[in-house]
Design goal:
By secondary structure, the chain is an all-alpha fold. The protein has five helices and no strands. It has two domains: 44 residues; 104 residues, no CATH class. Helix 3 packs antiparallel against helix 4 and helix 4 packs across helix 5.
Length: 157
């Protein structure tokens, strides 16, 4: 073989190897993105199930809609768990595991109702440092949705 032919074969081999590497890189990135979306969806489904199927949370949700005085009679730990769950939603949103739109749509109304409830916070100090993430999340949702009145339905996206 002539040196020109060897040089051509070498150049074609380099180009082909580059194409194979590029295709591999793109397919790996696409697969990683798909797995990331699947993980996020699974995480959301588990959180939603926990939120909607917990008898403790169901009781709180039923009482929050009209800020029932019965909220104050619930165990403090049950109310802490509920507000703590809302903080988990905030953490997941801040870490991009849950999109802000989904978090707001699925949980936002309840975050705002909880934040504005007087009876929910009886025996708890909503202003203490421990609840700063919760307050911040409630403020973000209120601002994003323009929810001056938490008892009206949130706007749709």
């Amino acid at each position: 073989m002539s040196p020109e032919t060897l040089s051509l074969i070498k150049d074609v081999s380099i180009v082909l190897a580059g194409i194979v590497a590029l295709v591999t890189l793109v397919s790996t990135a696409v697969e990683a993105r798909r797995r990331n979306r699947q993980h996020r969806a699974e995480t959301f489904v588990l959180m939603r199930r926990r939120f909607l199927e917990s008898p403790e949370f169901q009781q709180i949700l039923a009482l929050l809609h009209d800020d029932s005085p019965e909220l104050a009679k619930l165990p403090i730990q049950a109310r802490r768990n509920f507000a703590g769950f809302m903080e988990e939603v905030a953490l997941m949103t801040n870490s991009k595991l849950l999109s802000p739109i989904v978090a707001s749509y699925m949980f936002g109304r309840y975050v705002v109702l909880t934040e504005r409830s007087t009876h929910f916070w009886e025996g708890l100090d909503k202003d203490e440092r421990y609840w700063s993430l919760f307050r911040s999340f409630a403020s973000q949702i209120t601002e994003a949705e323009g929810m001056r009145d938490p008892y009206r339905r949130p706007p749709s996206f």
